[in-house]
What we know:
This protein has helices at 3-11, 16-19, 30-33, 36-50, 55-81, 124-149, 153-174, 178-195, 220-224, 261-273; strands at residues 26-28, 83-85, 93-96, 112-115, 119-121, 207-211, 214-217, 233-236. It has one domain (3-203). A 3-stranded antiparallel sheet has the order 1-3-4. The protein has 274 residues and is mainly α. It contains 10 helices and 8 strands. Residues 238-258 form the Ferric siderophore reductase C-terminal domain. This is (2Fe-2S)-binding protein. GO terms for molecular function: 2 iron, 2 sulfur cluster binding.
Amino acid sequence: MDPVFGQLLAEYPRFLMALEPAEHSRDLTVDELADPALLDRAVVAAGEIFGVTDPRHAGQLWWFSAVNSLVAPAVTMMVEFDRVPRLDLATGRIFLRDPADRCEDPGAGYWVGFTPGEFSAGSEKAHRAAGEDFARSVRPVLSELSRVAGIRPAPLWAVTADGMAQAAVEAGNGAFDPYLGVRVALRLVSGLASAAPEDVVVPAPRFLDISDGAVIPTDMDAVSAEEDPEDVHTVVRRASCCMIYRSPTSGKCLSCPKQDPADRERKLIAALGS
């Protein structure tokens, strides 16, 4: 494993399960990740873990988790260490952490991970290419998941865009350079959109700043000028929903777009101050 993973895990130990297979994990090809049986099992596993009964909601919840596992470590690396892992999934190691053939275990077949195998130096071109690579890799996955779970493709692509953007912005906040995170997010999603299916509109990411106890639109002119804002925490204004609120044991998440905007802003401010 590349030494940069050690740096990443030292600062973000939560990424361990997404980057390193467990003893019983099973490696996958990109084609196997799009296998109908694997996706059907992932939808069932979501129900076992979260109590979500509608396959549309379960499938979208699984994909939300999968995007985070597949891209968040790599995107964090782009922001924190200026190294760009290639997000063509065929160039690294995809694994199913709890294989579907262990289906006697509740939730088996839900958690995927990805260890990137190729890297380049950070640049606008490299970030856009990473977004394009990921789009091409997951097109067959999303096409088949849409069919298996009965989900329209557009929400799944919106989840993908928001997941990439959120990973970049969270890394920017962690690095005390939130607008760097915004720039990386814009490039990634631009690349993603350029390689998405022609009949799908990938929503452009939107951002909000929390500053002095208020939530305001992110200053995109300052982002473009590569200015370094003071005392700003940036969040993604999500276009997509993870569907976790469909679970009988969960409510709406902090950034859920289905919340009343005033309630969401109040919760964001409270969370940052806690």
